[in-house]
Write a structure and sequence with these properties.
The complex is a heterodimer of chains A (about 450) and B (about 300).
Chain A (H helix, E strand, L loop, with lengths): L1 H24 L18 E6 L4 H14 L5 E6 L1 H13 L6 E4 L2 H9 L7 H6 L1 H5 L3 H4 L3 E2 L2 E2 L2 E2 L4 E8 H7 L7 H13 L3 E4 L6 H15 L1 H8 L9 H15 L16 H7 L3 E7 L2 H8 L1 H5 L3 E4 L14 E4 L3 E4 L5 H13 L4 H9 L10 H5 L4 H13 L3 E3 L1 H4 L2 H15 L5 H9 L5
Parallel strand pairs in A: 1-2, 8-9, 11-13
Antiparallel strand pairs in A: 3-12, 4-5, 6-12, 7-9, 7-10, 7-11
Chain B lengths: L7 H7 L7 H21 L2 E2 L7 E2 L3 H8 L1 H33 L3 H10 L7 H11 L6 H5 L15 H26 L3 H9 L4 H12 L1 H14 L5 H6 L11 H11 L3 H26 L12
Antiparallel strand pairs in B: 1-2
The chains are: A alpha/beta (about 450), B mainly alpha (about 300).
Chain lengths: ~450, ~300
């Protein structure tokens, strides 16, 4: 016990030291610590993300707090990128929230390895209702080493190929079913003065969706499974090189909108190119439907938005029904929370989340909850076409690969995004990418 | 040490009491020197920010020193430092001289020049990011195609865009320093020069510039050492991209520490940053320090 205290103090001190040192050289770019909770100091805390699902989560917590004032949860919101840095520093310093929002994958594993998140296996075993409400393919992303450390908390987010039906009609084209058809569309759209693909290249992670799907279609899910398992030389799989070459061929052909590496996805400029007709297609996450529903309501309502799965590649081993993306986001519960915080947290997980009102609010926002038995609700929604499509896609996918930057360790993910950026800019060759990435295996 | 004893002459000889520096020193010790040793210690460990801190010998240092990204970051930092200085120093010197005169319209212009100083770096970066967007930014908005370049996405162009935005933000600050410096120069020097028949340009080079020697050193030190700390603006504007084109050393340190979660390597980078910063500050002080005690106002 005392040993642990010493360790903990040491670690907090180290974090304080790092933070202070960074602040010397970086002047005033730090952010304040977690806001102290108003009211009961022992109430559970929750950090959520701003954006698409923010109002849904706020409503859910408001309803819970109203019904359970003795187990009230204090909710704060952070922007995506800022949250990822902040929560890790806070958890490391023992200042984290009770509910830790996550994506599963490599980051969740690092929390598990350092004993920061609670094992919820017993809770799941004694509450079969909780287990049965989830799509099994999604639920398993919160399981590490046979134990459940994270439970899905919102909607399935597969990566989808969106297209603008209006501009397709204009040049008389069909949505591409194969890679060859896709490449053949590029000169046609260029001749019509329309960019074939929009891409938020500045944000880097939209680049990754291209690599993920191409590797999946060419080599199947095993290629990345080997990389994620840290097998030596796993990046040397020929599917990776072929996928990278295909990306560079598409860049050479002028497939991506001019200045794509200046376009930021977090400002939604990439999707704006699609619905303003400046670009014909975009490969993006399921969540941009929510954004477009808000920013371009008429475009979506009038059925001008088309969506298909990523085209197949001839000779490829991957099942065309396989999906990449984010199965869901997850709640983990801090192992450092007090007993009463943990109890409140589990009570909320048990009966406060995915209530009928929650599920309906998610569907109304244009998202597909990760729960079973919602077909009739989806069918009653004005967005039923897209929602049923996404639901079917997630439910029927033989394999649903988690976004690579989340699945890998943070060090590997960072190197991968920076090097893939170089591939799109044609600053490095596929061979260079492969050898650089092989060197990160195990890091 | 007490200043109440001894004549005023002795106080003058010894300078003001050393105790005046005490509060600053205490803060410096607490928030700079001690953390610095912490960072030095962390640079010999392996730590992902969550688990245990494990001693790891020199492995962080070998990783950092053999990584080509570090060399690139140093090179990018040097380029930004050089171009920032070349752009900012003359502009702020001339603006400082210009705004130091007492005419009303100059005062009005000075107020306008200082507006960027009121904005936070993050706000400046977000604003420029929106203005420079090739599809929805200033160029397409005003229908000026030459403004619709791939400003932040072209690896060759982005560095100069960053230098420009940094200059836009920091020139006002240095202008303010020069304005104050120029106003300190006794008017009698100019009157004497006028009587001797010196023109405006001659006065600038023979009086203003030499009189501003220490102001120039101060401003240059801030510019050069400050360019080691251009983090927030670049982080928001480009995130270090495209590729590694604008991944400055401080940004590289941050991304290594808080994105890749390798605190050992990030600490090693931090130590390198501190050493470079100290060396540069020392060199610049030396450059101007030869006749430290010589008065600039003799005969005034």
């Amino acid at each position: 016990m005392e040993m642990q205290m010493v360790k903990l103090t040491l670690r907090s001190a180290a974090i304080a030291v790092t933070a202070a040192a960074v602040s010397i050289s970086l002047a005033a770019c730090g952010s304040s610590g977690p806001a102290s909770s108003a009211g009961n100091a022992d109430s559970a805390t929750m950090w959520g993300l701003t954006g698409g699902n923010q109002p849904v989560l706020q409503k859910s917590i408001d309803a819970w707090n109203k019904a359970h004032p003795d187990e009230a949860i204090k909710l704060d919101f952070f922007a995506n990128d800022a949250y990822k840095t902040k929560v890790r520093t806070a958890v490391g310093a023992g200042q984290g929230p009770t509910f830790i929002y996550g994506w599963g994958g490599g980051v969740l594993k690092s929390y598990v390895d350092s004993g920061q998140v609670a094992d919820m296996s017993d809770f799941i075993a004694s509450n079969p209702d909780v287990k049965s409400r989830y799509l099994p393919s999604v639920l398993k992303n919160g399981v590490i080493g046979g134990k459940t450390y994270a439970l899905p908390n919102n909607n399935v987010q597969p990566v989808v190929l969106y297209y603008n039906k209006e501009v397709f009609d204009k040049i008389g084209a069909q949505a591409p079913k194969t890679w060859d058809e896709l490449m053949a569309l590029v000169p046609k759209f260029k001749a019509a003065g329309i960019a074939p693909f929009s891409l938020g290249g500045q944000s880097k992670w939209p680049d990754l969706m291209w690599l993920e799907y191409l590797v999946e279609r060419i080599g199947g899910p095993d290629v990345f499974a080997n990389i994620a398992a840290n097998k030596p030389g796993a990046w040397s799989d020929p599917a990776v090189k072929e996928a990278l070459s295909k990306i560079q061929e598409l860049v050479d052909a002028g497939g991506f909108v001019n200045g794509f590496s200046s376009i930021a996805a977090d400002s939604n400029a990439d999707q704006a190119l699609l619905y303003t007709g400046k670009a014909a297609m975009i490969l993006q996450g399921g969540w941009i439907y929510q954004g477009m529903k808000k920013d371009a309501a008429d475009f979506v309502k009038n059925g001008k938005l088309g969506y298909i799965t990523f085209p197949s590649v001839s000779g490829g081993k991957g099942d065309p029904a396989n999906v990449v993306g984010n199965p869901s986001n997850f709640w983990s519960i801090s192992s450092k929370a007090t007993d009463s915080q943990k109890k409140a947290a589990l009570d909320y997980v048990k009966s406060g989340m995915f209530t009928d009102a929650d599920t309906q609010a998610l569907i109304d926002s244009g998202a597909v909850p990760v729960t079973t038995g919602i077909e009739s609700k989806l069918a009653a929604s004005p967005d039923k076409d897209f929602l049923s499509y996404v639901y079917g896609m997630a439910k029927n996918a033989p394999s649903f690969t988690l976004s690579w930057d989340q699945a890998l360790s943070p060090a590997q993910g960072d190197a991968m995004l920076a090097n893939l950026d170089q591939i799109f800019l044609k600053k490095i060759s596929p061979d260079q990418f492969v050898s650089t990435m092989n060197a990160t295996i195990g890091k | 040490m007490s200043i109440s004893t001894g004549s005023s002459r002795r106080v003058l000889e010894k300078g003001p009491s050393g105790w005046l520096a005490a509060p600053a020193l205490v803060f410096f010790l607490l928030f700079a020197i001690i953390p610095l040793f912490g960072v030095l210690f962390l640079s010999f460990t392996k730590w992902d920010g969550l688990g245990e801190i494990k001693l790891d010998g020199l492995s962080s240092w070998t990783t950092v020193l053999t990584d080509p990204v570090t060399g690139n970051a140093l090179w990018v930092t040097a380029k930004i430092m050089f171009f920032s200085f070349i752009v900012q120093a003359p502009i702020s010197l001339l603006l400082g001289v210009f705004t130091s005169a007492s005419q009303k319209y100059r005062a009005a212009l000075a107020v306008l020049y200082f507006v960027p100083l009121l904005l936070s770096s993050a706000a400046v970066a977000i604003a420029y990011k929106a203005l420079l967007d090739p599809n929805f930014g200033l160029g397409p908005g005003l229908g000026l195609p030459f403004l619709a370049q791939d400003w932040l996405g072209n690896s060759d162009l982005v560095l100069f865009v960053v230098v420009f935005v940094i200059a836009w933000q920091f020139v006002p600050f240095h202008t303010l320093i020069y304005q104050g410096g120029v106003r300190q120069i006794p008017a009698s020097l100019y009157e004497a020069a006028q009587i001797d028949g010196a023109g405006r340009v001659q006065q600038f080079f023979a009086i203003t510039l030499p009189q501003l020697k220490y102001t120039i050193i101060t401003s240059s030190t801030l510019m050069v050492v400050g360019s080691l700390a251009y983090f927030d603006l670049v982080f928001v504007l480009t995130g270090g991209g495209p590729g590694y084109s604008t991944r400055l050393l401080p940004l590289h340190m941050y991304l290594t520490g808080f994105k890749a979660n390798d605190m050992g390597a990030a600490s090693a980078l931090g130590v390198i940053l501190v050493v470079i910063g100290l060396a540069l500050a020392l060199i610049l002080q030396r450059l101007g320090g030869k006749n430290r005690n010589a008065s600039q106002l003799e005969g005034a």
